[in-house]
Amino acid sequence: MRRRGFEFRRPARRRWISGGWVLWLVIGGLGVLLFLLVLSRENQPRSAPLVPQKFHISSFVEGLNVTDEMLSPHSATRQVVDQISLAKAYVTIAKESNNIQFAGALSAQLHHSQDLLSSAATRGTQLTIEEAETTIRDMAFLLFQAQQLHYDSASMIMKLKGQVQSLEEKSKSETEKSTKYGQIAAEELPKGLYCLGLRLSMEWFQNTNVQRKLAEQRRMSERLRDNHLYHFCVFSDNILAASVVVNSTTMNSKHPDLIVFHLVTDDVNYAPMKAWFSLNSFRGATVEIQKVEDFSWLNASYVPVLKQLQDSETQNFYFSGSGDNRTPIKFRNPKYLSLLNHLRFYIPEVYPALDKVVFLDDDVVVQRDLSDLFSINLNGNVMGAVETCMETFHRFHKYLNYSHPLIRAHFDPDACGWAFGMNVIDLREWRKRNVTGIYHYWQERNKDHTLWKLGSLPPGLLAFYGLVETLDPKWHVLGLGYTTVEPSLIKEGAVLHYNGNMKPWLKIGMEKYKGMWDRYVDYSHPLLQRCFVH
């Protein structure tokens, strides 16, 4: 198209209108650019700074209240958690019932439930009913099966009670068997001791030199009544044990030549005991040997224990095995009725010329000089003994029957017990207080075994009640025949006592304590070499 000439163009007014449109176009363009700029910023990905992230997490935790979630009755999380707790108990019960297949299925579903909770916790959201429905239903089915199998609480409590009762009965039975067999092992005469007794008996009757040595020792009979010497008495039917007591005492004595041992045994061991102590020297100590059968005054008319042995009920109780089954077998041991065991209550009559003696059991080892015992002031009491009431086990109520009115009326149940085995005895006070008569009184009233069961300690506690002077515990360390003893106590102890069934000369003896006893046995002796493999 051809352009107009200059003269035909519009006037200047049209030029002004053209400039205004330009202005509006510029403003509009700027607005569009600004809008596009803002829009582009909104669409750009922004990296969240550290602080806003923390704010987001804290806002989420505040929004998801775990406590409210668990307390809500409509919470899927709570249902799953409750099922898991119950399933864990049922898994254990199923295994106890030997239902391994069901326990495996329950364990697998248990792990699935735990995984569901773990995934919900990882993504930081609540567990919904929709996603947990299948898991809850499957677990509920297994829990229902468990109830059908009587795995519910009431049934399991009854079942467990039955199992506990059965285990208690088995434990009691095994304990009684252990006690019985332990008692048999403790009473069994080891082959070596039996052999030694036979060979010594042959030596005594065949070797006149042995009898001559004993006759020479009898010429020193004045020493047996000399109250300026140290007199010890031991009542035993065990040759080797008695030898260890004598040997350990003289070996550790500052003045062994001032020691006099008074040994009393039975008729069976009398000849071998005489032979052994005639064949061996004990550093100049005097050893007297007697047999209990020679004490004619020890008869049923005088000794309550012998009188009770004539009673048929007593014989059945101790010897037939048909006694009270509720009484432990250790209390029905006939050895407690042995005269050698009860001879300790007749010491003033056995040794009428003596004023003071130290009584030693045959299961002790002496580690220190004991001469100071004879100068201890007993403060008018009859006996010096080490108390054993550091624990409640060794108080009077543990040995005596306090349901009996006689015991309840005369003795304090919390009175401290003490130990036989190493005792200093003032025989003058004994005779003055008539302790043997007190012993007879209580022994006669226990003929029906209602005051105490058996043994020599309970009547000793009664006979010497209020007449015992407490000695330093270092004089007498107990427990080496049945328990563990502190090494420091053993090291400082003057007399070590192997009280209990595990005697050092038995196979069941405690190995860690045998060495202290073996130290005083000369296994190189020809007779011992023939009888003992050591």
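the 2nd protein, sequnce then structure:
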Amino acid sequence: MELFMKSSSLWGLEIYLFCLFIVLSNINGVFASHNIFLDLQSSSAISVKNVHRTGFHFQPPKHWINDPNAPMYYNGVYHLFYQYNPKGSVWGNIVWAHSVSKDLINWIHLEPAIYPSKKFDKYGAWSGSATILPNNKPIILYTGVVDSHDSQVQNYAIPANLSDPFLRKWIKPNNNPLIVPDNSINKTKFRDPTTAWMGQDGLWRIVIGSMRNHRGMALVYRSRDFIKWTKAQHPLHSSPHTGNWECPDFFPVSLKNTNGLDASYRGKKNVKHVLKNSLDVNRFEYYTIGMYDTKKDRYIPDNNSIDGSKGLRLDYGNFYASKSFYDLMKNRRIVWGWTNESDVLPDDEIKKGWAGIQAIPRKVWLDPSGKQLIQWPIEELETLRKQKIIQLNNKKLSKGEMFEVKGISASQADIEVSFSFSSLNKAEQFDPKWADLYAQDVCAIKGSTIQGGLGPFGLATLASKNLEEYTPVFFRVFKAQKNYKVLMCSDARRSTMRQNEAMYKPSFAGYVDVDLVDTKKLSLRSLIDNSVVESFGAGGKTCITSRVYPTLAIHNNAHLFVFNNGSETITIETLNAWSMDVPKMH
């Protein structure tokens, strides 16, 4: 909030002028051909229920949203485009909505930038990415759907007026589509172009997600002028039995520090690359870390990087279709991810009048081990923290003990806690049969109410006073054959009293790659926001986002507890908590 208030007077003037522009334009019929935008304005009669609506996560005033598209930083302004239904709160009528910000927290919602209107996107304008060309001109590549059979092509759009600081209007030139699938490609599985990067040969490259015979593929296309594109003879990477690859993301990461790198970074030393894919078969995302052979345009994952749903994930919870960008202003890479609803039934979304949010944008960098990514909420989020409540230091929790964190708004809060323990001797044995299970299946077996040795311990978020409802976020340490395994869970099974068999209430979980022998410490940060709990374990090594819909633990009736249900005594070394303010969403 403070950062937004310190923005230049020009920003405030832009807001005023834009509002005036909208009023005058509607009077004079300037938007007469933009029927979708007018439909958006005329849909104000739709009721919006605020019971579970988030306070500080990104979402438009109403209606359905999904994939974040083409995030970019351009001339002092952050842009976020996203898939949006301007006519309702279920999927359909999708356009590219557009919002701008100075700080990634406070936003101005603009008119849609791209909407289906021509033969090359008549049946859909789906996801894509932005690239800043060397002459400082942004360009968007996106997937167009050309017929009722979901045949897909790749199109481009450019700003109508580069002197407009908000880049409100975008043009889709008539020489679209730029890329049409050849006969070797499944034309219904050919989508979501990445940000382009330039090789040392002066050619631009992009990746497009695809599939052949259940083999996920990252197809490479090259161009010298960004208009004429040629498919490479072989994909950048592919993997059997992974299904269609959606929303691919390919970017370099530094081995030296936490700074971000531009997609076209050409350094050969102290750099690795990340390939992220979204799997539409099971709605998981995974990524690998490896080496990019620039001469052969081949990506080779490291030996310890696994392709498929058993691989590393940016988030082990409700998080999909993520898209990253390089933030030139702060020299960092930032990733956005879509967090859909879990109340499942379309009637729920219709009654609420909205569906979907974007997760808090995260800075992402390579762990010093080189084996995984680290993610952490962008520093700007801390401007929404209200007066800090330092709840306690060095408090011990014995088996079965629980205490309430008071003095904050437990339904809308930011909590950081550091746990320690004196011994690993009480860690439970890891059952070898669990090795083939997903972590969330192990969490379903060993939930927060199952007493253990070293854990479970953690937070009971969005809890009712008497714990009829709560979403526990916790750790449990196991002794495996050669090492210790740390399970982190965000378990929604007890999150609501609502009786709805269709509601999705999983025991989301992931393992945390930490060495406990020397440190014997684990940290946890949870962002709690009415119907979302976004958690970061061990400084961002493991991230889990849960969507939950309490009936009792709402607003002022929500509580937050810290608990230990293991026989090993846990010490809370520090616990800091803040109520969170609401950003400006114009």
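The first strand starts at residue 63 and ends at 74. Residues 53 and 339 are 13 Å apart (CA to CA).
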